[in-house]
Amino acid sequence: MNRFVEHQMLTTFKEFRTDCHRHFKKYSDLEEVCANPPNALVGRDEDWHFLCDHYISCAFKEQSRTNKAARQKQPYNHSSGSKSFLQRQYELAERKGEPINRVELFRETHVRAGTFVSQVAEDAHNQMLELQSQPTPEGSQTLSKDKICDQVLHRRLGYSKGLGWGPKSKARRTASASSSSTSCSQSIEKEIELQAKFHEALEQIEVQDRNHQALASQVESMKKMIEELTRAQQGPPHDP
Fold it and tell me: Bias category Low complexity: which stretches (predicted)?
């Protein structure tokens, strides 16, 4: 459960970060983009300017090139957009009025306009269907759709590819619990720490903004009082 929560937190933060960068790329002029923050950062110019500086830094550009090269090595992408596969599975089940198994979910999340996103994705789906249709030898147990997906997609320990974090085999659960939890925590530690610092900075900005508004109100009140005292000391205007 902890791994799932950490994964969802990281996913949410990554989606926010991606949305900000997508907004940044809409503009070709740095001054213009700095003056037009995304809706989530309206009124938080300092944070938006910090992100803009980050996006034009050499370190970010180098990391972007590395990430792009890694994505190109992936066998196929999906058509689910920013929605998690669990969310898509729930929506499909609601629409169809029946549970959606992982073989169906794989097709729904890897088809765009009636066509698979790649030949590799189509081959993987066909392999799943082939395993489903194979006769079961006498005395053996029929492969479940979950096991078929794990076999075709090469499931990682504790993670169902195309679905997300889930239960792992009982035989390996105890032995791997401590090490897998530590590994997962270490892999996202910096991201979660950055997210916490980011929200802390936003809260501080909000407090400073409220303090500034209160101070401005006090200054305005004092200014009016001084004006009234000055008029009172001068007395009524004399007729010429």
Answer: 174-183
Among the residues of the chain, which ranges form H helices?
2-24, 30-34, 45-55, 58-72, 85-96, 102-109, 119-133, 145-153, 170-234
Per-residue buried b or exposed e for 200-214, using 16+ beta carbons within 10 Å of the residue's own CB: eeeeeeeeeeeeeee
Q: Decide if 146 contacts 102 (C-beta within 8 A).
A: yes
Position of tokens 């590799």?
A: 120
Tokens describing residue 76: 């196929």
Give the amino acid at 138.
E
Reported residue count of the chain is 240
Question: Each residue of 8-31: pLDDT tens digit?
Answer: 666 677 777 888 888 999 998 999
